[in-house]
Amino acid sequence: MQQFGEIEKRLWSVADHLRANSNFASNEYFMPVMGLIFLRHAYSRFLRVKAEIEETLPSRGGVTRPLTKEDFSQRGSIFLQPDAQFDALVAIPDGGDRAGAIIAAMESIEADYQSLDGSLPKTEYQELGDDDLGQLLRTFNDPALKKADGDVFGRIYEYFLTQFADQKAHDGGEFFTPVSIVQTIVNVIEPDHGKIIDPACGSGGMFVQSAHFIERMQQNPNERVTFYGMEKNPTTIRLAKMNLAVHGLEGDIQKAISYYEDPHAMIGKADFVMANPPFNVDEIDAEKIKDDPRLTFGLPGVNKGGKVSNGNYVWMSFFYSYLAKQGRAGIVMSSQASSAGGQEAKVREAMVKTGDMDVMIAIRSNFFYTRTVPCELWFMDKGKPDAMRDKVLMIDARHIFRKVTRKIYDFTPEQAQNIAAIVWLYRGQQDRFLALVEGYLETAFTEMQSCDFAPLIAAMDAVTAAHKDAELTALAETLNADMTTLSKAAEAAKAAHWDGQKRDNAAMLASAVALHPLADQAKALAKSIDHFFKTAGRVHDAEVADGAKAAEGKKRLNVMDAERHLVTEHLKQARYFNGQAEWLQSRFPDAELCDVEGLVKLTDRKEIEAKDWSLTPGRYVGVAPEEEDEDFDFEEALRDIHIEIEGLNEEAALVAATIKKNFAELIV
Fold it and tell me: pTM for this one?
């Protein structure tokens, strides 16, 4: 998420350039730009995988066999012919045929991968001038895009859809699914085999994250699963195919209006259903679907115009119908749906009575990239144990989030894992819960002991000796003592309370207790180190007037700054992972599922019936008691304020530029 801010800046520059220098409307240059991003992203993955493959290639007589397409598909990438590699395109000199080269690159990829035949942009590049293409290639030959991974392609697709292309899709309730939400769905349903269907697949992000899940198991996704997608927009289908291909994945993506068509004939066959369908659609023709076999629970309400009043439960019925006997589903749905009344409540009642409703997770607003709407994640499991068939796990995760920008929140990887850990306890998988806690504590102890204070102390001594400032000297002496004390304490704690200790729940609770005061000391020490650096900077600025001495002093400060970052990062990571372990252990001290006020409750069918068959987690888990925040982080609060101000400043600059442009047009 953090890397995407840099990518956005490049995309804005591209948009500005194309507005001024091409004949394309904003919704027309979307596809040629996405094609170049496809090539850039494919090449980045190609290079990463190529290095891994070459280490394992067999050789005979000193000759190593050449690379093949199969080598790359096994590692989540596509093979690129030399002329299709991004560096080759960037190297084309001015006056060269850039459009022809890009088209040839696209054609070579389509020739190697039949699933992409006709999907990649080609003729569009003939409409762009050679200089324009050169600028685009150089813009995308950028470190942020070289390093970008995960479903960055889907994120960029959403960015263009939002900023430059057709807004109607969003007005119809369609949104790009944030990675942290998809990851949460994947963590709960664990799609590791068989047939996976997304009947509203968009740019294919659900498939990409499922593949990453399988890759983390050291397995090849193409050997474990088959992806089936449905999408009504031809352009989006092309993007989904490109997104799958860039990750070395294969899938059957069909053009279809899912309300009326089932091109994969998937009823009762899907091992996993994953979807973020359009919310609250009210234009579905009831007459067309009234006899659809996918309407397991019948039609929800129909209005006077013969339209389904709200399509949310049409989607739910369809998803349920696709599931095989042991199938699982994870769906993103409007928060309105879980307590909707009327005929929708009757459909929901029928769903609960199947015993297949499994988990409900409430997500706060601001997770979507383009809208502030809150949502809920619905999970179904036809393979639930008999003893749990009248139970539904309610999780209210609205208070779990990380603030990324003024408008965008997400889960950290650990927050997403912690939510999954609650589900593990629900499923009786205590071993996985304990392994996660162990991993957090292991990381915390290791990070604490990894602090090598000696280089920082040496850098501080050099700065202190150069200035002879009394305050700086006193701070250095205190810091030296504190670092020595913490280093010895961390080593002793790891030896006494972690190395060689049992990894059962009781032992790890004791380990966490021993680590906690060290984590607090680490926080205080990190702040003291930062304070010393700022003080040294002020002293340097006040004392040094001579140019040569100023340069020397600045060099000393830079050396100390580098060492400061290394040390404080270890300290912060130690405290962070200790906090993650504490979050789980304080709520589930026996490593068993229990009701936690404001977070989780295991409900039964009688309780759900008493609340009008509502599946809204907040109605069951209650409100967490207000706690005094003894751990208020002033610097973190300042960071949030900075994010807010930075976002407002960026918006103000954009508004000012628009006003200036419009005013200039008026007076021409």
Answer: 0.86
